[in-house]
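Weekly structure sync, notes
Attendees: PL (lead), two postdocs, one rotation student
Agenda item 3: pending single-chain targets
PL asked that the sequence for the first pending target be pasted directly into the notes so everyone works from the same version. It is reproduced below exactly as submitted, 107 residues in total.
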Amino acid sequence: MARQKREDEIAELAERLRTIITPLARQLRQHANGGLTPSLLSAIGTIARKGPITLGDLAAQERVSPPMITKVVASLEAQGLVERTARRGFRRLGLAATSGWPDGWRR
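Predicted structure, written out during the meeting:
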């Protein structure tokens, strides 16, 4: 009986630690990557490799929905990492391309 109680206490403590450590680990990963989440890093890598790319093609490459890729590109654009331009003759079809790289970043 005492052994079961001890195991339950350990399991509860482990769960409490997990809920504390998980967000901390996420913040540390973002900080280590210049404040970029894994999805932002993946998207900017695809944009850098593919050159100017439509958001639809980027969404397909990243296997996410078009609304999600719009948010991702908007975040990268707000950080000055990508630029969106309109494709000539197609008002709603935009292209995403990398802009300048911040100090300390390597291509």
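Discussion points:
- The chain has two domains: 1-32, 36-107.
- The chain has a mean pLDDT of 82.
Action: rotation student to compare against the earlier draft before next sync.
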